Amino acid sequence: MTRRLDPDRRDRIIDACLELIAEAGVAGTSHRKVAERANVPLGSMTYHFTGMDELLREAFTRFSDTVVAVFEERLGAAGSVAEARAAVVGIIHDDLLASPRDLVLTHELYALAARSPEYRQITHRWMRRSRAALERHFSPDAAAQLDALIEGLSIHRALDTEPTDSRRTVDAVARITAP
């Protein structure tokens, strides 16, 4: 018998896990459902992951790395404080939680992090990287405040029934980053 080569299997499993979480939440995600979605044998799940917790940690780490990469790219492209302020506004209004999928994944991760130190490590790493990107342009105190503003306004934007006026965001960013 020839062994089937499938070098992308582990990645497909992680991607399938994220898609299932976005659709059904963590509570609605199981090894069996992930295997079916990833089109892999159920045995592949235990071959690649010691259990559901390891799979969830890998999936949420991938998700947070993807989100923070956009953050780092946008702030890395800013060549001045004015461009960095505009980048922060863009992150809030154009990037973060722009899709219902990302909103659900973020909140599912937060719920796990509220209960479990292992998942809190993922959110802590996410915040540390976000703040480091902000500190390229702003003081550590301003970066921490901006990070909280970004988080809060992104959630408000995603859950509010009325569109958010970006001028308020521009004003808040200017106040926080004023010399």
TrEMBL record:
Residues 30-49 bind DNA. Residues 7-67 form the HTH tetR-type domain. The keyword Transcription regulation applies. GO terms for molecular function: DNA binding. Keywords: DNA-binding, Transcription, Transcription regulation. It comes from the Bacteria. PANTHER family: HTH-TYPE TRANSCRIPTIONAL REPRESSOR NEMR (PTHR47506:SF6), TRANSCRIPTIONAL REGULATORY PROTEIN (PTHR47506). This is TetR family transcriptional regulator.
